[in-house]
């Protein structure tokens, strides 16, 4: 269990890092402030690395029992990926989710933080630095939208008709031979798109604005641990396409989050070939 003091610590660390390290660099990155990792569209900026360092330092100083592991730390040392499923508490940080958007000047990025114990997320927040608001969820609890000191309980969509469903599918994360089939199956639904930002996709799903989020074939915990909590806490359903429950240690598998069980089943039926 994460105490109220620990939650407040993480929230403050994220908001402080956003003010000091992320927002001052938005639309102000220099040529040397952006580099690539796995490919030309997999970007990392100085905002990512500095925000991750600031968040980690603040949490570690006040909560020494917690292990803080961020996306950029894993990029530098792949062995840290296994430690995200350790006994915990492990604080998993995505300092700038939607880095491509951020680097291109699009205000569609966020900070994702989840606390996991034994591979299971127990608390998470999905923060929008531009608006200074966030979605917060805890294991076994409800999901809330927090803004300007107010809290509002969230509920996922109960839409069950495929022709009325909207969702997010990251086609670019799949091999080219699969993309035509993905596009064909997507035509079944009302609207399929991608925000290139897990933070805002999960926020939209938890608020009931879309019916599902489908991931790529590699379920990075920094992208999905907090989102899985947020969706389930708002009444939705989160499972891998093969039926497996979400846990941070899993390295491969397509995760499907949906507003309700019927929607999950109908989306899974169309995209089962990915699982």
Textual characterization of the structure:
The protein has about 280 residues and is α+β, with helices and mostly antiparallel strands. It has two domains: about 5-155, Fructose-1,6-Bisphosphatase, Chain A, domain 1; about 160-275, D-Maltodextrin-Binding Protein, domain 2. About 35% of the residues lie in helices and about 25% in strands. The strands form three sheets. It has a seven-stranded mixed beta sheet, with helices on both faces. A hairpin with a 4-residue loop joins strand 6 (about 120-130) and strand 7 (about 135-140). The protein is globular. The mean pLDDT is about 95.
What pattern of helices and strands is seen along the backbone? HEEHEHHEHEEEEEEHEHEHEEH
Provide the gyration radius in Å: 18 Å
At the first level of CATH, the class of the largest domain is: Alpha Beta
Distance between the termini: 32 Å
Shape estimate = globular
Could you outline the blueprint of secondary structure elements for this entry?
Layout: H1 4-22, E1 34-36, E2 43-45, H2 46-62, E3 67-70, H3 71-76, H4 80-83, E4 90-97, H5 99-103, E5 110-117, E6 120-128, E7 133-138, E8 143-147, E9 150-153, E10 166-168, H6 176-186, E11 191-193, H7 198-206, E12 212-214, H8 221-233, E13 237-240, E14 255-258, H9 261-271
Parallel strand pairs: 3-4, 10-11, 10-12
Antiparallel strand pairs: 1-2, 4-5, 5-6, 6-7, 7-8, 8-9, 12-14, 13-14
Helix pairs in contact: 1-2, 7-8
């Amino acid at each position: 269990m994460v105490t109220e003091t620990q939650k407040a610590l993480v929230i403050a660390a994220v908001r402080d890092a956003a003010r000091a390290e992320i927002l001052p660099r938005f639309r102000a990155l220099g040529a040397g402030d952006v580099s690539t990792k796995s490919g030309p569209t997999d970007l990392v900026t100085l905002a990512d690395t500095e925000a991750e360092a600031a968040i980690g330092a603040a949490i570690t100083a006040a909560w020494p029992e917690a292990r803080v592991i961020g996306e950029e730390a894993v990029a530098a040392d792949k062995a840290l990926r296994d430690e995200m499923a350790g006994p915990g508490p492990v604080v998993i940080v995505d300092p700038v989710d939607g880095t491509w958007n951020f680097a291109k000047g699009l205000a569609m990025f966020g900070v994702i933080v989840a606390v996991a114990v034994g591979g299971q997320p127990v608390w998470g927040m999905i923060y929008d630095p531009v608006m200074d608001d966030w979605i917060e969820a805890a294991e076994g609890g409800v999901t809330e939208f927090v803004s300007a000191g107010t809290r509002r309980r969230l509920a996922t969509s109960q839409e069950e008709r495929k022709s009325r469903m909207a969702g997010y599918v990251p086609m670019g994360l799949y091999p080219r031979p699969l993309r035509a089939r993905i596009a064909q199956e997507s035509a079944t639904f009302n609207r399929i798109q991608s925000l290139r930002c897990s933070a805002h996709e999960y926020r939209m799903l938890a608020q009931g604005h879309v019916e599902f989020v489908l991931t790529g074939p590699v379920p990075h915990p920094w992208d999905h641990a907090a989102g899985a909590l947020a969706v389930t806490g708002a009444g939705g359903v989160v499972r891998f396409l093969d039926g497996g429950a979400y846990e941070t240690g899993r390295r491969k598998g397509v995760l499907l989050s949906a507003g309700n069980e019927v929607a999950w089943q109908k989306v899974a039926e169309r995209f089962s070939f990915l699982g």
